[in-house]
Amino acid sequence: MSKIINGFSKLNKIEKIDWLVETYFQNNQKVKQVFMQYWNSNPVLQDLHDDFIENTISNFYLPLGIAPNFVINGRDYTIPMVIEESSVVAAASLVAKFWSTRGGFKAEVISTTKIGQVHFMYQGEKVELTNYFNSKKENFYKVTEEITKNMRNRGGGILGIELRDKTAELKNYYQLHVTFETADSMGANFINSCLEAISHEFEKDDIQIVMSILSNYVPECLVRAEVTCKVDELYAENSELFAQKFVQAIQIANAEPHRAVTHNKGVMNGIDAVVIATGNDFRAIEAGAHAYAAKSGTYKSLTNATIENRIFKFWIEIPLAVGTVGGLTSLHPLSKLSLNLLGNPPAKELMQIIAVAGLAQNFAALRALTTTGIQKGHMKMHLTNIIKQLGASEEEKEFLINYFENKTITHNAVVEAYNKLVDEK
Ligand code: MEV
After folding, report:
1. Which terminus of the chain, N or C, has less C-beta within 10 A?
2. What is the Å distance from ligand 1's center to 266 Cα?
3. What is the pLDDT of residues 372-382, one digit of tens each?
4. Ligand 1 atom closest to Cα of 259?
């Protein structure tokens, strides 16, 4: 039976589910139930979510957790995090507490410039193109005046428009490289609208516009977060060795891209969780962060650490184009609340909070990896998940957790111990 359908988007939600269940799930009504079980009982709220995307049939829940005890630039924060991976929120909370008694996190925004480009092909003389560009430059600002009006009132707008010759990279390829300040919004729509208006103004017979789009590579929308303390205050058991191995772990990431990718993945555990909770675009953040990690030509760590004069310093520098107005930030009730929880920060403050979450996560990962290893914590979680799957009672759960305190946890071993416990009863 063909699974191709015409006019699917015109069906209502129930019809869409019916088609899906019939076509892919042998008309199993239990499947329909599962999809519908996640509908919100409040129709207004459900409608809101239905309209975020197209062809919505249900909601896909992710947990929203909070990590308290963050001190950033002397201010206390409880950070909202949306993530499916266990241990991330717990690690963030532990690290937040740890650094709260060592001066907290310091963060600063280095720059906030965003970039958009009109990519085009031109075969003629470069000097003529340059003259044409110069003759048009004033008009670019004029044709975008309506679009930039509000943004200019908020201190943003177009910062500069440059003609760039890219013919060394690709034959006939030039671009208009446009820089923007977008204040508290992420600015994607604003930038793209400006670019399209500029490209229409620029287009002529011998200029073939290929596309106009913002860049998610924003090395000039940069934030830095840092922690520092005396080496002696770092780790109870052997501070010196701990600090040394911590720095080595970063050196290894810088020397070995295989490790750097995992290292940065740990950073992004913290970053993405806050980006999602606050209604920002995590794909844009991911793409930009990894490009930044590779800016030297080799993929490297996003974090750095030094020990100088017995002082340990650990920091991150990362591009983060995020917004606290516009987009999903006020549309999604939980993003709105997340921003409320953070004190309705301007975008610059949110950049600092997010960078701190990434740094904290990397600290937790490296601390675990260079000391006990991460499996200890993970296997504990694994154990509780298996116990839950087995349907153990509270009493049995407590017994099994104690039983496995000093034993190797495997799925089989837990099942065996559980069965034995049940048999003995
Ligand atoms: C797991 O989600 C993240 C880590 O692998 C990060 C790292 O290895 O640094 C623990």
Report:
1. N
2. 4
3. 898 877 788 88
4. 8
